[in-house]
Design goal:
Layout lengths: L2 H11 L6 H8 L6 H17 L3 E9 L1 E2 L22 E2 L2 H13 L4 E5 L6 H14 L6 E4 L5 H9 L2 E5 L14 H14 L2 E3 L2 E4 L5 H13 L4 E6 L16 H15 L5 E5 L3 H5 L4 E7 L15 H10 L3 E2 L14
Parallel strand pairs: 1-4, 1-11, 1-12, 4-5, 5-6, 6-7, 8-9, 9-10
Antiparallel strand pairs: 2-3
Amino acid sequence: MNHDVAAAINKALDGSDLTKTEVTRLFEIDDLSEEAFAIQRAGRLLSAGLSQGKAEIHGQIGINIGSCPIDCKFCSFAACNGVFPDASVLSAEDAIAGVNSMERQGVNAVYVMSTADMDADRFLELSRAIKDAMISDVPLIANTGDFSLQHANDLVDAGYTGVYQVICMGEGEFTRIPVARRIKSIENAREAGLQVGMCVEPVGPEHSVEELVEKTLLTRDLGACFSGAMRRTSIPTSPLAAHGQLSYARMATIVAAVALATGAAVPGNCTHEPNGLGVFAGANLLWAEVGSNPRDVEAETVRGWTADRCRDLYSECGWEVLEGPSAMFAKTAMR
């Protein structure tokens, strides 16, 4: 067992923050090594301890499709990928039906996702309709484009508790969004009283260890209520498809390393899409999905899992599932 890796693992389990050098060492490990399995075990122990052994299932509904000019090359909505040339938005009735269905399956939070260029007023209008029709008290989370402080306040008024906002892998290179703009949106959300969920994503073979470390430490430094890692799913028309995809064996080590790197300050550790290796290695947050999906080439997701299927996966990996509202988004939005 490598001494430096063992020391970093023990330091993280003891509740201390890892240095950049220590985090780098975790990501450099070969996935079939003794050290990789030690990292995965430690990630599981840390995540389970921070969540009192209870995993969560969050439900997400994609409410629109279209040709988005933000052009994130990994996304099926990107104009450059040509998957969805025609724009459409779910009706309030269909959106409410999708949300209520996930609530009945016992999700711990509901996310409303749109393309980055969706009209802000229309997003808020649909959000208010969804919030008014919810049949549970689970928190509502926005997953949309960048926003001003005023829009962040509007999200609170529409009933949102938090946002999912990510500084993507390859941000500014594979997207048209400057990193500074993403960070400003996160700051606006927090100033408005919204909690922020983040993730190291989407990870592909084209990304370096240095960037993994950078994006991981950003999620810790920016005060995320959850982090974790998602692999990039290849969109057939995307130029990134030529790189292939990472294996879930590799992602299990990454997910566990993210948990150790973000430490006690970040209780949630997600993996996506749902997979047994990541869950066994410490992912305590999975998503069920309906509606549109940025990893799909169909308007109604065929890749998205149901909450019941996520619950079965947790059971197979030895996790209990939290009942009721999310503990990761336990605080209500306040100004």
